[in-house]
Amino acid sequence: MTFQRARSEEQRAVRRQAILETTSAMLDEMSVAEVTLNELSRRVGLAKTAVLRYFESREAILLDLMDDRTTTWLVELERELAHGVDLSGSAMERAEQAADVLSRSLATQTVLCDLIGAQGGVLEHNVSVEVIRRHKRASLGNLAVMAGLVRRHLPEVGDRAELFCLHALFMAGTLSAYASPPPSLLAVYESEPALAVHHVDLRTALRLAIITSLVGVLPRS
After folding, report:
1. Is 70 exposed, middle or buried (0-12, 13-18, 19+ CB in 10 A)?
2. How far apart are CA 76 and CA 105, in angstroms?
3. CATH among 3.30.2310, 1.25.40, 1.10.10, 2.60.40 for 1-55
4. pLDDT tens digit string along 24-78?
5. By C-alpha distance, which of 208, 207, 209, 181 is closest to 195?
6. Is this model's pTM higher than 0.70 or not?
7. What are the residue boundaries of the structural domains of the chain, listed by start?
8. CA 78, 160, 121, 133 torsion: positive or negative?
9. From residue 215, how far is each of 47, 80, 99, 211 by CA, in Å?
10. Are 210 and 171 in contact (CB under 8 A)?
């Protein structure tokens, strides 16, 4: 893919979208840590300096992509909760069902979990105030949508839904780092299973963390 220099806002929007789509495809092949501007520019057909005309840094690209992926995932989550939570059940039954849905759904979003895991320590660095402001506004909007979905199926959570959702996302980002160890670590775990305590199944670990968190925010009967 090669581009001529963008001459209009419409052309700039096309370039930005191509950069985001190329980065998204790269993340289906590699971790966030492995994505480089050099490889991205090669795949998108733009010089590295040209890529930086559309996004100020690698981190700015990944933050935009994280917001887009979260928005798309929430559309899927709405359908999954609607099918997976029986609104006629008790609060605890619905909490367990919601934990099943959330853990299963997040465990399939490996790229999103990787992005969330890198958010605070990596992605929110090397970006301007305006990029952070835009990202935080998008994040808060997505958090409000997620909290609304949780309240729809667990109204008992009330105004603690946002905090619960934030913690669920943070847990997904943190736990995902332990679910996909590098080959050298896998070799160690295989040769010495007692050392494999930190090698977790993401869905199982997330379900336990989510149900524990939900029990903490549900009102005492």
Report:
1. buried
2. 8
3. 1.10.10
4. 999 999 999 999 999 999 999 999 999 999 999 999 999 999 999 999 999 999 9
5. 181
6. yes
7. 1-55, 57-217
8. positive
9. 51, 21, 10, 6
10. yes
Whose tokens are 């040209």? That residue is 50
Tokens for 136, please give them: 């935080």
Task: Kindly report, residue by residue over 117-144, the tens digit of the pLDDT.
Answer: 999 999 999 999 999 999 999 999 999 9
DSSP per-residue string spanning the chain: ---PPP-SHHHHHHHHHHHHHHHHHHHTTS-GGG--HHHHHHHHTS-HHHHHHHSSSHHHHHHHHHHHHHHHHHHHHHHHHHHH--TTS-HHHHHHHHHHHHHHHHHH-HHHHHHHHHIIIIITSS--HHHHHHHHHHHHHHHHHHHHHHHHH-GGGGGGHHHHHHHHHHHHHHHHHHHS--HHHHHHHHH-GGGGGG---HHHHHHHHHHHHHHHHSPP-
C-beta of residue 101 within 8 angstroms of C-beta of residue 205 = no
**CA-CA distance, 106 to 179, in Å (whole number)?**
13
**Which residue type sits at 152?**
R
The CATH H-level superfamily of 57-217 is Tetracycline Repressor, domain 2 (1.10.357.10)
